[in-house]
């Protein structure tokens, strides 16, 4: 089952900074390279707030398995 929260933007290693002029730069602090908010990687570690939302929706702590 696909977890709708699994993306870089919800990971604790995700960093967003505004570029001078305009635009944003998204960076993965763990992997050390530029990324995009919608990318997904197997090293994903959700932020605490996202974990709480997942638990509310019935996802187990060992995502992406949803509790039945």
Radius of gyration: 13 Å
- Distance from N terminus to C terminus (CA atoms, Å) equals 12 Å
Number of helices: 1
Order of helices and strands: EEEH
Instruction: Give the low-pLDDT segments.
Output: none
Strand fraction band?
A: 15-25%
Number of strands: 3
What number of structural domains do the residues give? 1
Instruction: Please tell me what the overall shape is.
Output: elongated
Helix content: 10-25%
Largest beta-sheet details: 3 strands, antiparallel
Class by alpha and beta content:
alpha+beta
Q: Main sheet: which strands, in order across?
A: 1-2-3
Mean pLDDT over the full residue set: 86
Summarize the structure.
The chain is α+β, with helices and mostly antiparallel strands and 68 residues long. Helices cover 13% and strands 18% of the residues.
